[in-house]
Amino acid sequence: MNKLISLNINQLVQCYKTKSVDPKDVTKLCLDLSHRYKHLNYFISRCDEQAAEQAQQSSERWQKGKPMGELDGIPIAVKDNFCVKGLPTTCASRMLENFVPSYNATPFNRLNDAGAVFMGKTNLDEFSMGSGAVDSIFGPTKNVWRSDDGHIAGGSSGGSAVAVASGSCFAALGSDTGGSVRNPASYCGLIGLKPTYGLVSRHGLIPLVNSMDVPAILTRTVDDCVAILNTIAGPDSNDATCMRKRYSQIELSDVDDISMKNIRIGIPKEYHCNGLAKEVLDTWIKIADILEDGGANVVDISLPNTESSIFVYTILNQSEVSSNMARYDGIEYGYRTKEWSSTEQFFAINRQIGFNSVLKNRILCGNYFLLSKNFEKYYLKALKVRRAIRNDFDSVFHNKDKTQNVDLILTPTTLSDAPLYSDFTKNSNRDQCAVQDYCTQAANMAGIPAIAIPIRLSDRGLPLSLQLMGPRNSEKQLLTAAKWIENQVNFPFFQFLEGN
Ligand code: GLN
């Protein structure tokens, strides 16, 4: 294994600074790996030549001691639902197959301005609706850990996850509306951070559910995740839902200086649910014990509305989807048929051919929920339960009785390791999401930050992951605890690359 791949972003930047490593060599290594693992189908658009060119320019800047920013010469990838000027942004859908945006999404712009080398755009479930990266017009993405056996990568940001896990880049952007970054992070053995809603601009991210969408980060280490977050977070006048407050850069202590003493960690009993694999449960208990041994105060808590959350998420998701998808009619955006005899037929054919069955299903359900006769019964009621779910979190994070408060919540990320494609696709998209998103989507409804942390390998040799959730804007504390756990578990990520 080339040892460059085992360095983290900060170490690489240090090496660039002292000229002991050249960005061209790092980019070349990532390009080589991305060709070696090409069959896993994780890139939709590749930028091999531009990446080599960018690395050359980065190399010249470092030679002159004038880097563009904190990520100069670091290879990254971006999910194909972020607009990148001049490149197709397909959302893995026939509807947007030929859409080429004329502007950059804000998070991509910021990575670009910091000098990152852009490797390409990654595969996803159509319009990010799914949990497997299996429903794409470009075909499914495969998991890098046991690709020959056909395990899924997770989704919807599965392409970004495999790009990072295979060593084809050091970090990738995904989007997380109900778990789409944490789920593939779990299945591919990565750190997956869903920041607080509004901390990172959504400008240029093709919307799925505006009230829950968050640009999110996939990396191999917590420190790398911090480097990316520090680059992309902060106010943006192009996104009215983005926080106005200045973002303060996060600096984590050295791991030896991090202590879990007196940190209160909540274990919600509702996450001990049907279908939770024994290996995941054991891992959860083990890490709770390790935290306790490290001085943390681990306490049982209850988030009583968790069980309603899948239903509420489904209603809200489909309602917002039906409204967001209305713009794709073949006039302003989207697939355009050449043969039609009336305006109605023109729209109908475009939407019939442009969308897959998952989308059509969600649009129909969403329209039903939003009918004036149903609005109160479904949509409004779902909003009320969403508030109750949010209140559950507030009551454990911000209780008036401060002695009852916890700082963080520890849960599984997914109920098992990565399923086989053949098992996963036996179920409908809706059933898949009900199982896959059980532990992840409540954080989106509450707008709180959450992070997936790889812990160990299952008996089948696939990654197992746990999730930490924290109060809104608690990223520093969340990432600090994640770094402490990362150090305790020493996940065998690089062993996997050596074995390949
Ligand atoms: N699986 C969920 C869905 O399909 C979450 C998707 C996401 O986070 N983008 O809606």
What does this structure look like?
The chain is of the alpha/beta class and 500 residues long. It has a domain at 2-260 and 411-498: Amidase signature (AS) domain (Amidase signature (AS) enzymes, Alpha-Beta Complex), CATH 3.90.1300. It is 38% helix and 12% strand. The protein has an eleven-stranded mixed sheet with strand order 1-3-2-4-6-5-10-11-9-7-8, sandwiched between helices. β7 (264-268), α8 (278-293) and β8 (297-301) form a beta-alpha-beta unit. The site of glutamine has 15 residues, from β4.
Distance between the termini: 8 Å
| Number of E strands | 11
Query: Spatial order of the strands in the main sheet?
Result: 1-3-2-4-6-5-10-11-9-7-8
Average pLDDT for all residues: 96
Rg from Cα: 22 Å
**What do we call the CATH homologous superfamily of the domain at 2-260 and 411-498?**
Amidase signature (AS) domain
Residue share in helix: 25-40%
- Secondary-structure element sequence? HHEHEHEHEHEEHEHEHHHHEHHHEEHH
Low-pLDDT ranges:
none
Give the overall silhouette.
globular
The name of the CATH architecture of the domain at 2-260 and 411-498 is Alpha-Beta Complex
Characterize the largest beta sheet: strand count, sense, and whether it forms a barrel.
11 strands, mixed
